[in-house]
Amino acid sequence: MTAGQPVLVARAVTKRFGGLIAVNAVDLEVREGEIFGLIGPNGAGKTTLFRLLSGVYGPSIGSILLRGNEIAGRPAHAVNALGIATTHQIVRPFAEMTVEKNVLVGVLYGRGRLRGRAADAEVDRMLELTELAPHRATLGRSLTLARRKRLEVARALATKPDVLLLDEVAAGLNPTESARMVELIRRIRASGVTIVMVEHVMKAIMSLSDRIMVMDLGRKIALGTPAEIAEDPAVIKAYLGERAVAS
Amino acid sequence: MTALLARFPKRALLIGQIGLVFAVAIAIALIPVIDERSFNLQRITFFLLWYAILASSWNMIGGYAGQISFGHAAFLGMGAYVTGILWSQLKWDPLLTLPAAGLVAALYAVLVGAPTLRLRGPYFAIATIGVGEATRLFFVNFDDIFGVTLTKGVTGISLPTYDPVTVHYATVVVFVLVMLTTMWIRAGRFGLGLFAINMDRDAAETAGVPTARLQVFALAASAFFAATAGSLYAARQQFLDPASMFGFDKSIALVLMPVVGGLGTVWGPVFGAVLYSSVQDRISSIVNNPYLPALIYGVLLVVIVMFEPLGIAGLLGRGTKYARALLMPKDGDE
Q1: Distances (CA, A) of B83 to A201, B135, B146, B155
Q2: Distance between CA B260 and CA A220 in Å, rounded?
Q3: Residue B115 burial (CB < 10 Å; 0-12/13-18/19+)?
Q4: How confident is the model at residue B1 (pLDDT cuts 50, 70, 90)?
Q5: What backbone torsions phi and psi does residue B112 show, to the nearest 5 degrees?
Q6: pLDDT at residue B118 above 60?
Q7: Which helix (H) or strand (E) holds A180?
Q8: A104–B5 C-beta distance less than 8 A
Q9: Exposed end of chain A (fewer CB within 10 Å): N or C?
């Protein structure tokens, strides 16, 4: 995969919660059209970093630029309007709305500014892409986990982002469902959307990512291709402990 | 409008909805025409529509966006007093003051809503209790604060006389406007955003919904119509006092009607208003105990909410497919 221009750049981003530093002076540079993986042990600060990138939290220090536009400190809907959409680690469908209306929220309030029949057509397209079309009339609360995860993706993608943040969309899925999700992510990237993903399912993230950043205790400890990351002593130490490196 | 948004998949049902509003409006408008001495029926139907306007306006923020206001009497009373003052002091025609009263209350709603609607969970509801009481006390002490003689404190103000039949027609018009507005919200992009906020505010925000702005708009629209109801009351009763306009019992009534009738539905608040005003009226005319209507209404509230969360609209909608689509077009029922 040829590396494009930097599209999403974070500089020395820090987030403190009282005395806890969840994200500590992290630099990040995501390039146009790539799949950028983010891994790390529990509590490494991955989800907090995602919330900073999507505008759910504002950083304590640092700056986040999307194509040169500062997003730090803007509310989440404004960040979405600039071109970053996110899924939620713990799925959050609109429970009493049908699947199609969940997606319609993203279409009508997204950057496409679609209305009327064009909006309906876009909903149809999203449902086809995420294989949710047969379940379009099902209420959000009645979906299985795998479908809820795909609905998260559909709703976020419906807002027409430049950068899509995927927070553990394969977690909790069985191997078949997980493989379908991997396929879906490939299709989304092929459509020109840059992807940043957090994932604990190693098979998924190793096979998908062009580059991977590893975090531990709020800091960036490594950055490289999946092959480089797998060999990196700092990464092995963070995941498996000191002795694993020594042996 | 997108086909997905139209909650009435058949055009006939949408026409049916609008037709129902006009049928009710025309029937009530004809009462003084058919019998100009039907004073009692005019009074009953005035209050029926009056409560329906109030309940529907409350439903815009409480039912659609899910932000429960226990202080809506603030907007009702503000509308009544704006009309009272413009009418008695500046000699405006009271019905011409309706837009002014609505706008003042809408501005006030923006002012109090911008900070309080950011609150989560039950805290907005709690804040509105404070807003309601503070507004009442402000109007009670208005003259002392500004050194004028305008609201006359707890004694209230007497207003000039005005033709009740004209007010009757004006009330019908406001009723139609509030119903068309609530249907427009319910079926459009704005309403979809409010429902999204109601179900999960954070998810709505990340899906691009400007949640703060939408909620403030909804509260302002709600306050606008609640205030016009206050104006209509002033024109009809020709007397205003803080206890009856700003009373906490009024705020509570505004919550109970939509809850009993069917939260977030178009017709639920109207059903709630019919039940509420008829219980008020019937019982008070039979037994002279001021607490009995509240007691009966309270029991009805518990029974209805226990068996049907969508209230009377939900109960009536159980009948046929068409009744369901007409009365409680909720997702999953279509």
Answers
A1: 65, 16, 19, 17
A2: 55
A3: exposed
A4: very low
A5: -85, -25
A6: yes
A7: helix A175-190
A8: yes
A9: C
**CB-based contact B89:B311 (threshold 8 Å):** no
Is pLDDT of B57 > 90?
yes
What residues in chain A have their Cβ under 8 A from chain B's Cβ atoms?
54-56, 75-78, 80-81, 85-86, 88, 92-98, 100-101, 104-106, 108-111, 115-117, 119-120, 123, 137, 139-140, 155-156, 158-159
Q: What is the mean pLDDT of chain B?
A: 89
Q: Decide if B263 contacts B310 (C-beta within 8 A).
A: yes
Q: Is A183 helix (H, G, I), strand (E, B) or coil?
A: helix
Taking CB atoms and an 8 Å cutoff, what residues of chain A touch B4? 100-101, 104, 119-120, 123
Residue B209 has pLDDT above 50, yes or no: yes
Q: Is B278 exposed, middle or buried (0-12, 13-18, 19+ CB in 10 A)?
A: middle
Tell me which of B8 and B28 has the higher pLDDT: B28
Please state which CATH number belongs to domain A6-246: 3.40.50.300
pLDDT in tens, B123-154: 999 999 999 999 999 999 999 999 888 888 88
| Per-residue model confidence as pLDDT tens digits over B155-208 | 889 999 999 999 999 999 999 999 999 998 988 899 999 999 999 999 999 999
Q: Is A88 close to B206, i.e. CB distance below 8 A?
A: yes
Which DSSP helix (H) or strand (E) runs through A29? strand A20-31
Residue A198's pLDDT is 95
Q: Point out the least confidently predicted range of A5-19, A120-134, B34-48, B285-299.
A: B285-299
Residue A196: strand, helix, or coil: strand
Alpha-carbon dihedral B19, B25, B29, B31, rounded to 10 degrees? 90
Greatest C-alpha distance within chain B = 61
Average pLDDT on A134-152 reads 95
pLDDT tens-place string over residues A197-216: 999 888 889 999 999 999 99
Could you say which of A96, A111, A119 has the minimum Cβ distance to residue B331?
A96
Q: Is the dihedral of CA A77, B61, B228, B155 positive or negative?
A: negative
Sorting pLDDT into bands at 50, 70 and 90, what band is A1? Answer: very low
Residue type, A124: D
Can you give the residue ranges of every domain in chain A? Answer: 6-246
Q: Is B309 on the interface with A (CB under 8 A)?
A: no
How far apart are the C-alpha atoms of B303 and B292, rounded to whole Å? Answer: 17
